[in-house]
Amino acid sequence: MVNNDAKLKMGRLSFVDTLIVALFYYIGARVGLFLVQPQEIASPIWISTGIALAAVLLRGYGICAGVFLGSFFAEFTLYYSLLHITNLTPILLSSAVIGAGAAIQASAGAYLIVRIIKTPFPFRSISNVFKFIIIILLSCLINSTIGAITNVVGGFLPVTAFCKTFAGWWLGDFTGAILFAPFILTFARFSKSTITIPYVLNYILFVISLIIFELVVFTNIFSWNSTYYPIQYMLIFFIFWGAFKFNIEGVVTYSVINFVLSVWGTINRIGPFGSGDPALESLLLQGFLSIYTIAGLILTAAFSEMKHSESRLIQLNRELESQVQQRASQLEQESIELDAALSAIADGLIIYDTEGRIKRMNPAIRNILRYDEAVFSLPIEERMAGIVELKTAQGNPLSINDMFIKKALKGESVTGEASVHVFGTDERYWIHSSAAPIRDQRGAIDGVIITFTDLTRLKQVEDALYRERELLQTIIDSVPVMINIFDPVISQIEINKYTEELLGWTKEEVLHMNLPEAVYPDPEYRKMAEEYALSSETGFRDFVMIAKDGTKKIVSMAHRQLPDGRLVGIGFDVRERKKAEEKLQELTRTLEQKAIERTAQIQATNEELESVIYSMSHDLYSPLRGISGYAGMLNELLEKSEGDQEARLYADRVQDITKRMEHMISAIKFLLGVFKDVYPRQETDLSGVFTTIANEYKSKDPKRTGEFIIEPDLVDWINKEAITEVLKNLISNSWKYTVLKSYKIEFGRIYKDGKATYYVRDNGIGFDNKYAEQIFRPFYQLGGYPTGETGYGVGLTVVHAIIRKHLGEVWAEGAEGRGAIFYFTLGKSINDSSAEELSEQQE
Prior knowledge:
Layout: H1 15-34, H2 47-59, H3 64-83, H4 88-117, H5 126-153, H6 162-188, H7 197-218, H8 236-246, H9 248-267, H10 278-344, E1 348-352, E2 358-361, H11 364-369, H12 380-384, E3 388-391, H13 400-409, E4 414-422, E5 428-439, E6 445-454, H14 456-478, E7 482-486, E8 493-495, H15 497-503, H16 507-511, H17 515-519, H18 523-534, E9 541-546, E10 552-561, E11 567-573, H19 574-640, H20 645-676, E12 682-685, H21 686-700, E13 706-710, E14 715-718, H22 720-737, E15 743-752, E16 755-762, H23 795-805, E17 810-814, E18 820-824, H24 835-842
C-alpha cells in the first residue's frame, strides 16, 4: 500500500526488498538497453528511472540501496558487453558512480514530490500533475549529468559526445519516469473493493480495443495501413476512454500498452516512427509517448477534480437544502416567538398598512388605549372618539392619523408624548408614542409601526428618583465621612458637608477653585496623590491635607470609578482609625492570651484523658487474665471429667473473647502511644523496608505462590519505625486477603496533583468501595476472610493514626473480587519538588 503521509520512511528495509528492487531495476535497464538501436551508452527510454522513483515513494529512502545495486550491475554489463575492456577498475568505478547517481536522483525526485506536492500520489489535481512533471524534469538532470561526465572522464566517450549523451540520457530518464512511475504507483494502491464484474468486462474491452488499434497503427498485421497514415493521433480517443471510465488506472494502462507496441513497431522499423532516421525517430517516439501520457495524466486529474467538484456541489446542495429547511423552521419558530414576545411586552404596538388599516397589534394596546378588537374596524379617529381623549403637552388635541401615520408614510420617524383622558372617569395618564415606516427589501414603504408606552410608571419612577436623589444627597451630607466626586482629570469636584467642615471650603467655593492645589501645595506630593486617585489601586492610603485655615488633616482615602467615568473618593479622619487600631490590638492581645490559656486547658484535659484510658486498660488486664485462666481451668476439668460438650464450647468461647479483649486493650494502648509519641523524621529507604517485611512473610509460609512487585529506590523523609509499622499492617492485610490464589502485592509511588503518593495494591478479594472510609475506624471489620479467621480491626487504624501523625493522608479503593489498593502521603515529602516533572513522565 502507498504511504499517504507527507514524510517518507527512513528505516532500513529487508534484504529481500532490496534484492527485488535491484532485480526489477536491472530488468528495466536491460529492456531499455534493448531499445537502443544501434547499441550506445544512453537509452531513449530508461524504464528503470520510473521503477526507482516509484520504489522510493512506496518504500522510503531505504530502498535506494536496491536502486544502487540494480544500476551498478546494469551499467557494468553494458560497459563490459560494449567495450570489452580487460581492466575492470574503470568499469567498476564508473558503474558505482552512475549507480549512486541513480539512487540520488530517485531520492531527490521523491523528496521534492513529497515536500512540494505533500503526497506521494500526485495525480488527483491538475496543479499537482504539472508539479510532478516539472519535478521529474529537474530530478532527471542529476543522473544524466553524472552519467555523461563519468563516461567522458572515464574515457568511454569523447568530449564532443557529451551534449548528445547528456540530452539522450535526460530525455530517456524523463520518458521512463513519466511512463512507469504513475503505472507502479497506481496499481500499488489499487483497491480490490473497486473490482466488479461490469468494471472487469469494461476494462477487458478497453484493453482489447486498445491493443487492436495499436496493432493497426504500429504493425503491418493489417495490410490496409501499409502506407502508414497518421492514424496514431486517433489514440487520443483511448486516453479519453481510459481517463473517463477507469480514472488513472485506464490512463497508465494505455501508456504501458502504447509503449510496448509502439516501441516494438519502431524497433522493427514498422509504423509511423520506423521509416526515417533512427535517432530522429527515437526522439519523436519519446515525445509521442511522453506527450500522450502527460495528456492522459492531466485529463485524469481534470476528471478527478470535476468529480470532486460535483460531489462537493451535491454536498453543498444537500447542506443548502438542509439550511433552507432549518431556516424555514427557524422563521416559523421566530414567528411564534415574535407573537409571544409581542404578547409579553408591556408597550402597546400596532402595525398599519399604507391605507391606515391595522395588520397586527399586541394585547397591551387594549390596556393603554382602553379599547378592543370591536372598534378596530372603525376609522382611526372614530375609533378614539368616545373612549379616550389625546392631547399634546401644551394641551392641544392630538390626532394619531395626522401626527404619526401620515408622517411615517412619508418616511419620517415621529415621537411624541400625549396626555390621555378616559371619558366618563377622572383617570388621566401620559403615554409616549413612536412611529416609523416599515420598508420592504427594495426600500419601499410597506406600512407603519406605532408603539405606545404608558408613562404613568415612568413618571412615578422619575418622582421617586428625584426623592431618592434628595435623600441620597442628605445622607451624603449627613455621614461623617469625606465624599468627593470628580471628573477623570480632577478639575470639577463636588464635596459633601463633612468635607466642608473638615477642610473649611464650601461647595460653592470648591466649584470655582482647584482643590488639589489647595490641599496639596507641594507639586510632587500632589502628583503622587492624583496618580493614586486615577490608578486601579483599591486600598486606602493616608494623605496629609492642608485645610483652609492652614492646619494639617491626616485622611485615609480610597477611590472608585463610577459607571459614567467619574471618580468618587471616600476619606476618613485618621484619628478615629488610630483609636480603632489601638483597641483592636488590645483585643488581639486579649484573644491571644485566652487562646494560650484554652490550649493549655485542652492539653491538660487530653493528658488526663490519656492517663485515665491508660489506667483503665492496664487495670482491665488482671481481671481479663483471671477470666481467661479460670476458663482454661474449667475447660481442662470438663475434658478430664468428659463433661457436657456444650459447657466446654461455652468455656472455649469465654477464653476466646477474653483473648480478643486483651488484644483490643493492647491495641488501644498502642494507639495512645501513636497519638502521644513524637516521630523524628530521617531519610528512609521505603523500598528496603517493604522488601524486608515481604521476605519475612514469604519465609513464614514458603508454600504460597505469588510475587511482590516493589518499585526500587523509593526514599523519603519519615520515621523508619513508623513507616515500618505502616507497611507491615498494609502487607498483612493484603497477605490475608490473597490466601486463596497466587498473590500479587505491589508497592510503588505515583503523583496525584503534584503530591508524592505511595500505594500498596493486591489481587485479593477486595471490598465494596462504599466501605472505603469505615475500614480505618478502630475495631471495624468487613469480614469475608478467605480462611474463615477473624482479625481485630486495628491494623488499618494504626496505619491511619501514623500517617495522620506525619500530616499525611491515607485512603483506600476497592472492588469486590478485583483486589484493593491503599494510598498514603507523608505530609511534606522530599519528592514533591520534582512532582510535576515526574507526573509528566508518568503520562
